[in-house]
Amino acid sequence: MARFEVIALDSDRDLIRSLARRLAEEGPDASRLRAVVSQSIAGEPAPKGGILAALRRSPMVGADLDLTRAREEGRKVDP
User: Fold this and answer.
1) Nearest CA-CA partner of 23 in 4, 46, 42, 7
2) What is d(CA 43, CA 46) in angstroms, rounded to the nearest whole number?
3) Which residues of 29-49 are buried (b: 16+ CB within 10 A; e: fewer)?
4) What is the mean pLDDT of residues 14-36?
5) For residue 44, what pLDDT band results from cuts at 50, 70 and 90?
6) 33 CB contacts (<8 Å, ≥6 apart)?
7) Is the pLDDT of residue 1 over 90?
8) Which of 24, 33, 43, 62 is the most buried (most CB within 10 A)?
9) Of 47, 46, 19, 45, whose CA–CA distance to 33 is shortest?
10) H-type helices in the chain, by residue range?
11) Mean pLDDT over the full length of the chain
12) Using CA atoms, how far apart are residues 25 and 34, in angstroms rounded to an integer?
């Protein structure tokens, strides 16, 4: 174990202390928390397929919508 000093917002004091306490416990929960925080800070891209997965969870899936549009020739334009 090591002791750290950090500079942060006073409003984050309890959050940082509880995070440090959880990480010091060394267990599966600490490992998951460490991975989530590390990924968030590193700014790694989200896994691929997230948009498709969200669309598949939509309540509109299987709603049998008719999305066809009438085809129009357009208007005449003077040359």
Assistant:
1) 4
2) 9
3) eeeeeeeeeeeeeeeeeeeee
4) 88
5) low
6) 19, 22, 23
7) no
8) 33
9) 19
10) 13-24, 28-42, 50-56
11) 86
12) 11
